[in-house]
Protein 1
Amino acid sequence: MDSQLHIALFPFMAYGHMIPTMGMARIFARQGLKATIITTPSNVPFFSKAIERDRQLGFEIFIQLMNFPSAEVGLPEGCENASSINTPEMIPKFYKAISLLQNPLENVLKDCHPNCLVADMMFPWATDVASKFGIPRLVFHGISTFALCVFDSLRRYKTHKSLASDFDPFTVLGLPNQIKLTRLQLPDYIREKNELTEHKDQIIQSEVKSYGVLINSFYELEPAYLEHYRRVIGRKAWLIGPLSFCNRDTEDKVQRGDKTSIDEHECLKWLDLKKPNSVLYICFGSMFNFSCPQLLELARALEASGQNFIWVVKKEDKFLPEGFEKRMEGKGLIIRGWAPQVLILDHEATGGFMTHCGWNSTLEAVAAGVPMVTWPLYAEQFFNEKLVTEVLKVGISVGSQEWSRHEKKILIRMEDIEKAVTLVMVGEEGEVMKNRAKELKEMARKAVEDGGSSFSDLNALLEELKVINV
Ligand code: UDP
């Protein structure tokens, strides 16, 4: 048998899942493995540049295609990524299409004979598919160990079920720290049964049956939670992040995710003119659209704070207050579309990150040593906020209260936004957080170096895979 291990990676079709999967493929290939990314035709351009560059360096990363059943479920042709969903009616159709990918996955595995399958948690049936081929399946959740532990506690103790009000804070039981949440901050499928609840149960069952779990994080960031995940919850897990460190030069940092809507040189030139730690970077990930009133509150808060900022808005947003862009010239840079996020976070002028606490963004901020203004919106982002503000203490909350994928009923007021921004950017508290963030950055860097915790976890996993594949 060929002694080179071959890992197939099957990411969920959303940027927040594809970006770290590309990172995993790159770190596996750098360890001498062959890595094959399984995806659909419209998602190929997302991976191809980075793959091309790595192939030129002699690393073995390949793409294997499967068709996405857009037409079968009534989605427009080419709608193969969660970021192309722009109406609520498209959501169930997209998930239907995802559920139809089991046979195509089998066909791909028949063709490419990997020794192991890393499949996104969104594909619970992937564990059975892998076992048909006699290979281990590793689950990639794309979230923090902390969030995995919170989800487990909610499932185990159901404390949120016995509350009088959605606004009552309750303690998430059994965790290493005292963490309080409200029911309003929990995902809808946890608050009450909906079409996603069953899917989430299947995810847990498939996780239990799978070989183990890969996590984009590093031991020193959440040691107590990794212990809890391994010993109390009983999962086999390897922490191999931060995966964003696989982007080493400017080209790497630019060619990840969508095509950037600003020339990177222009962006760097703008940042180069600013003092260290003087710019607030604002981005709410790849999926969420704010309402106009909320965007106005944010614009007013930024103006009132007097801070330099780079603000990423959606292409279609036409909300800015009268004369805002003119008044902010030189002080605020607005990027409409996709920003080179890691490049911006890594620049010394960037001193704060207003984030929705998506896990990739959160960890990218940690890896860059940048404190955060936290504004969670949905998914597990409210949990990540607690990790950032209460456990790691490198962020201040704007006071977001309401979990929702769509327009929110509760507006976050300009005064609250401005207060959090000022505390992080210029306050004494902000200074302390900046120092703590720099320490975390140093720990993150060491974790991925030779002998570091993530490096060792990765190698331990590869050794294990070699043994089971003999
Ligand atoms: N991202 C980016 N530029 C943008 C928006 C997002 O590079 O303008 C990247 C960001 O660096 C991160 C990912 O997209 O790697 C977003 O993932 P996250 O988990 O933070 O949030 P999601 O988009 O899944 O809500």
Protein 2
Amino acid sequence: MAFKERVFSGVQPTGNLHLGNYLGAITKFVALQDTYDCIYCVVDLHAITVWQDPPDLKRTTREVTAAFIASGIDPKKQIIFNQSQVAEHAELAWVFNCVARLGWLNRMTQFKEKAGKDRENVSVGLYAYPNLMAADILVYRATHVPVGEDQKQHLELSRDIAQKFNVDFATSITSNGYGEVFFPLPEPIIQGPATRVMSLRDGSKKMSKSEPSDYSRINLTDDADTIAQKIRKAKTDPEALPSEEEGLKPRPEAENLVGIYAALQGTDKASVLREFGGSQFSVFKSALVDLSVAKLGPIGSEMKKLVQDPVYIDSILADGSARASVIAGETMKAVKDIVGFVRR
Ligand code: TYM
């Protein structure tokens, strides 16, 4: 069955947005809006799987919204909203809690990493989180999902849930007049030179909001001096840059910086190495500082301006939520028919 093509993705409002979020996800969101109808969500229900200070949660929700707009997503053409304003996400997630198998969730590496040794003490929400993520996507019957590499396994789980729902309820889907297959199997879009941006301090660790050292990441709101300092201090090795990609393989820090440069420039690692092969890091880092400041500076300033006007931000979220609710409501009605719930 052919589904209407639609893009969905989400970003958690926890901590500072960083270069990994920007290059792995947000730049893709911007590019896809030329070809698709897109729905971009600030996933506050996901955020509370670990403790969030309530006033901070409001602030970071508005900040992520500001980042979407400042990066170039058009809130009139596309839908930008926060998850908790559309109750169907949580409603469909419950149905999916009953579709997904415990064994599937037990395989989720992100849960294992986040829960660590303290597994008995983490929230049930943190464990069930991938089911909510599947609901986020499928409540819009979205077909394409731009994400960074770290979300790949969750996307595979979303496909498994969609598939099992379609098979378990096949007879009901047909008899209720919803065609042969109800949910599309959403396709991840994980492309380009920066699908996994690494820490500036350690090329074997992902750049992340939760890493204690602020020097491990570039935040979208960092000013030019801070960006320059962080890049100058970024870990490297004593060799000059290679001329071929092959030469980056055993050098994770070099590979990371070259990937960041390529993604910011909108090119690939091979082209960057054609330009900088044989250069010392001092030369390459200066060029990277200039490029980063040129690309990120205007976004950071626009974000800072936008968050000064929470009334405007909240109006974008309210409008987006109203439009999202219409689509989600349609899906949920159908799901109720298919599952066998009596409804109004
Ligand atoms: P979150 O909030 O951790 O990250 C938001 C997006 O940024 C990407 N990302 C990275 N990409 C490259 N390098 C990095 N170091 C890096 N760090 C983060 C993430 O892959 C993500 O695309 N579970 C999701 C949010 C979510 C979602 C969804 C995504 C909830 N529901 C439905 C897609 C569809 C998350 O925690 O992303």
